[in-house]
Each structure stands twice: as structure tokens, then as C-alpha cells.
Amino acid sequence: MIDRFSFVNNHWFWYIILATLLVWLVFALKEWRQSNKLKLYLKLALAFIALTSLALIILKPTVISSIDTYEVALLTEGYSNERLDSLKKAQKKLQVQTYKVNESFINPNKTPSTIYILGEGIAPFDFYHIDSLNVTYLGNTTPSGIVKLKYDQEQTLGNSLDIEGLFNNGKKGTKLVLENPAKKHLDSVIFLNDSTKYFKLSTQLNVIGKFEYHLVEKDSTDNVITSNPIGINVIPENTLRILIVNGFPTFETKYLKNFLAEIGSEVVVKSQVTTGKFKYEYFNVNTKPTVVFSEKNLQYFDLVIIDAQSFRNLGSVEKNNLETVVRNEGLGVIIQSISNFNNEVNYLANFSFQSNKNISTTLSKWPKTNISKTPFSLKSQFSLHPIHKTNDKILSAYKPLGNGRIGTSVFENTFQLILNGNTNVYQTLWSETVNALSKKQLTTVNWNADKNIIFKDEPVTFSVRSHINTPKVLNENNDLIPLINDIDNSSLWKGTNYPKKVGWQTHYLQQDSTQIFNYYVADTMHWKALQSFNTIKSNRKQFETTQTENKAYTTQQPISLVWLYVLFLLSIGYLWLEPKL
């Protein structure tokens, strides 16, 4: 019974009790000499009642009482009327409420004993409303449409944009089309039967800027079912300094140097003409660097492309210098014409090759384009990172070496792609190889968002990694976004923003406005299937593992102090009047 009582000022309890007893004892000692013992005992009792009443008035007693509970059916997007009707039959006193994002539906004075969630579920950022309550998630079926999507929002000029995903319950004849900002068809896939299918769409990126591509779903008669936007930010390649070394001039080098120069790279070519004589070519270079394999000269370059013969002919000092710069400075090396190595590379990185009779291959991005290669493929090894592969055959790859990377490939005579009209394939092939191997530029600030598709008025959590002390991040409206420092990493900060506009938005550092984070915001009317799938998955994870048993909900109700005041006044009144009567 006593467990049902408590006090508002419980932290004062012992101080009040001791003070009350002390005052009562002082009063008792003062009155103890009174000869009329009956009056003495009466006055002691009334003094005790008065002091106890005063103490309780100060402590403010409360009583724990049960809260009137009820059961709720919470209707969310896509709920089933049939399931709701069957639930009403099973729960006669069921109350029905419709869920609205960012709005509380719990009455603090009347807590539901059970909440039944019908439909897709509630948004993850609203979970806190019902964290401590008993929730039964009745779920929903996985919607039809794109339910998974993977792509990089920031892309480098010349690279291939690859969009991968999962389309659920596709109907025969359904077509997925990737369109550019001008609504031009770039790539597509067609469902040959009713199925759930993984898809991959690709296109070459040849223009710098922030763009809005579209992933369009069409039926068998080419009528548009849905059109969902994809934000792509195409940034320029870093200006690379590339050294090409050949044992003799080749068509491969001729086309490669032209391509690298066209995209703005500084290119130096050293080709052996005859014994002891070399030809030097310079592109986009203001001052002509010395082409010697010394540590100082190699530090100037970001990437060395060298054929196997020249690589093998390097002297011991040159090899040591090359290895030092790769390990310490992050220089990248591409070794060409591996067939001259008798299918094995033992210096700097151990690459092993296996025989493969095919002298041409295709890649999944370009299944109809043949690419020339040597009759080998790379053997899979620990620490080997593939760049290009097909049917589990590794065609190009690299291995880390200190801060740098050493790579090779089985491609040869790739210039034939240009001659056959496949310039985009050639450019993408070499762009991906060069980007994977070249020296990585150190950035002072790194940005990252917690998801690819960001929606208007919904929270987006981002992280910023910087060595700036206490970075300050502003949004596109110049509003300061609060940041939390990671407890384990002093250079990592996290924040949350609620974008208010659709389209491209920015965050930037107040200390350095050149450090910008661009991200695309979609309207909640788009990507419906993807939103539904993610909501269903989050609700299943949240409520199927945290369901609690039914329990009685209670609250502390304050006891009326009126009777305590009455007791105090009557008791103290008698004690005050008694000597005067």
C-alpha cells in the first residue's frame, strides 16, 4: 500500500522529517512541566498533527493511480480495410486514428495499452512517440516498383554513371528508361516476363555541372507509369601529371596521350627510338620536367604508365626510387603488355595470370562491344582489387603498396575501340583505370550523407570530416546547423538538416566557403515504392524485435492539500487559544 504514495518534493523528505521531529521535541520539553497530564497529552498530539500537516503540505504528497487505457488501430499509408474490419471484430473497444507525419497521436493522460499499426508504418523519425509503448506492427506487402537503388551522386567527368537497383513485381513488357535532363533516352532494360529483377543502367558523363536525370517506368505500350528524378553532380577531373614510358612508339600510346591531354592532364611521353635515343613529348606542360627515375623527379607525377619491357629494364637504383615514391608519396603505376612478363609480375606487386584462349572480351556495360585483350586473365589474390572484370574473369586490377597503387591489365590495342566508333567505351575504360590508380589528392574536408535519396521536409543526417577546430556548417539559407563531435574521432562531426526546397541544395563551412556539399532533394511524391519499402523494413526491424507485454500504465496524481490545511489550522488554533481560555 505504501508503494502507492510518493511526494513531489521527495528530495526534501529527510530534512523535513528531522526538522519536524526537532520542533515537536522542543515543544514537548517546554510543555512537559504542565501538571494537567490530560491537557499535556492533548497538546502534544495536536502539535504533532499540526507539524505533520505542515510537513506534508511542504512535501506535497501524491498517489499512484492507474491510467485509463485503450487500444488503437493506427492507419498509415497503404492500409487494408479488410484487415481493419477484422481487427475491429476482434477488439470491440478499438479506437481508430490516422497517422500524420511529425504529429503526436498519444494522449499523455490516456495511454493506449496496445497500438496496432496497419499499412506501411510510421516514419523512422517518429518512432520516439511510441518507444515505451506496446506496439504490434501488422505490416504490408512489398510494393511494386523500384525498392532498392544504388548510385553515386557525385561523379567525375568522363566516368560512367552506373545506376543499380531492384524492381519488385515487374510486369511483362515493363521498361525502365534512363533519361538525361533533356528527356533523351540513354539506356533501358525490358522485363521479358512477370518477375522481380535486378537492373543496371549506365551512361557516359561528358559535361560538368549539376543535373537532374530521370528514371522512367513505362508499360508495354510506352505509356509513362512513373518518372523519378536522380540528382547527379558531375565535377571536373583533378589535373593529373602523367608520365608514359615506352620501349618504342605505339598506336596505343598515341591515342592514349591524346585522350589524356584532351581532358586537361599534364602528359609527358618518353619513347625509345633506337638504342640509347629517346623521343620526348609534352602536353599541357608549362615547364618541361626532366624524365629521370629519381625520387625528386618522380614526386612531380601522379601516375606512371609504363610497358612491361621498360619496367623490366629499369636499373636497381631506378627501381628503388620508384618503390620509395610509390610507398611514401602515393604515386600510381600502370604496367602494360603483361605478356612480355611470361604471365608473371614479381616486382613491386605480385600479379599472377592464368591462360585464357579468348583474345577479346565484353563488359556488362557494353555487351555488344568487343575489346581486344591478351589470352590471359588475372588470378584472384588476397589484396587484389579488380577494376574491370567479366564472368568472374579479372581483366584489370591493382594492389596497394604503401600509400600508392600498382596496377595492370590484360587489355591491349584498346585504340581499336576509337577506330570502330566506340569512343565512349575507350574513354570510360581508361578514365576508370586512371582514376583507380593515380595519386589520391588529400582533401581538407570530406562530406557524406546517410542516404542517396533525400526528401523535402524530412531529416537528412550528414557528416563532415575536417581538422578545422569546431567547424561551423551553414545551409543554403545561411542558417547555422548544430553539429555533434564524434566521441571517438575528434575530426568527425555530424549534423541533421530538414531541407525545405526541392532541387539542388548546399551546405558549406563558415570558416571556408569553398568547401561545399551539394545534394539533391526530391519531392515526397516521387520514389513512392522506394519510400514504402524502406518504411516497411524500418518498422519491421523496430517493432518486431521490441514488442513488450501488456502492462498497467500509471501516473502520480497529487493529493488535495485542503484537508491538511484544515487540520493544521484547527490544531494550531487550539494551541494558540488554549492559554487564553
Q: Cα-atom Rg, whole angstroms? A: 38 Å
The second-level CATH architecture of the largest domain is 3-Layer(aba) Sandwich
Q: How many helices?
A: 11
* Mean of all residue-level pLDDT scores: 86
- Domain module count: 4
CATH topological fold name of the largest domain: Rossmann fold
How helix-rich are the residues, as a percent range? 10-25%
Q: In the CATH hierarchy, what is the superfamily of the largest domain?
A: Class I glutamine amidotransferase (GATase) domain
**CATH first level of the largest domain: which class?**
Alpha Beta
- Biggest sheet statistics: 8 strands, mixed
How are the strands of the biggest sheet laid out side by side?
Answer: 17-16-15-18-19-27-26-25
The separation of the N and C termini measures 42 Å
Kindly name the structural category. Answer: alpha+beta
Shape: elongated
Count of extended strands: 37
> How big a fraction of the residues is strand?
35-45%
Describe this structure in words.
- The protein is of the alpha+beta class and 581 residues long.
- It has four domains: 2-65 and 557-580, no CATH class; 68-140, Rossmann fold (3-Layer(aba) Sandwich), CATH 3.40.50; 145-236, Immunoglobulin-like (Sandwich), CATH 2.60.40; 241-437, Class I glutamine amidotransferase (GATase) domain (Rossmann fold, 3-Layer(aba) Sandwich).
- Helices cover 24% and strands 37% of the residues.
- It is built from eleven helices and 37 strands.
- Strands 17-16-15-18-19-27-26-25 form an eight-stranded mixed β-sheet. A five-stranded mixed β-sheet has the order 8-14-13-10-11, with no helix packed on it. Strands 29-36-35-31-32 form a five-stranded mixed β-sheet, with no helix packed on it.
- Strand 3 (70-75), helix 3 (81-90) and strand 4 (95-98) form a beta-alpha-beta unit.
- The longest helix is centred in the first third of the chain and has 23 residues, at 37-59.
- The radius of gyration is 38 Å and the shape is elongated.
- It starts with a strand and ends with a helix.
- The model has no long low-confidence stretch (mean pLDDT 86).
